[in-house]
Input
Amino acid sequence: WRSGTVAVDAGVPEMTGLSTPTTVPRAADGRFTVRWAARDNVGVVRYQLRTRRATATTWSSSVQTTARSRELGLGAGTWIVGVKARDAVGNWSAWRELTVVVPRDDRGWAFSAGTVRLTGSGYFRGTLTTTRRAGARMTVAFSGSAVYLVGPSGPGYGRMRVTVDGVSTIVD
Output
């Protein structure tokens, strides 16, 4: 007689985490890292990752991996990132999703006076649009429920008034 151990795996994996250090990437090249985790009664052996623009209905081709993180470089816009887990017998978890907003660079914008465009690897997408003229204005039209301003801050950058829908805030 021989004996052995049999593990019955009738359960599906459960996604326990999906995150990124920030939902608005601030790295100079616009890249960001997504991390995920899952659990299963026997063990998770693979993950599937997909992306899509928030305004689109079609997902990217799925990428299968054993890794629990991936660095992504997506174009400007709002993106949905989805991940699901697979166990050893082929059971798949439900998709877990998060939203990431990748900002546009500032090359298309200018101040009403004294616009200076700096370039360098430390600036978001390689550019920084500035002015030293007191009272200079920049108007940016957008539609949606949020606007993100990404850039350096500190004593050398001055104060800025941001007004959205008639409500002003000073950024210092």
Summary: The mean pLDDT is 88. The first strand starts at residue 14 and ends at 19. The chain is about 0% helix and 40% strand. The radius of gyration is 22 Å.
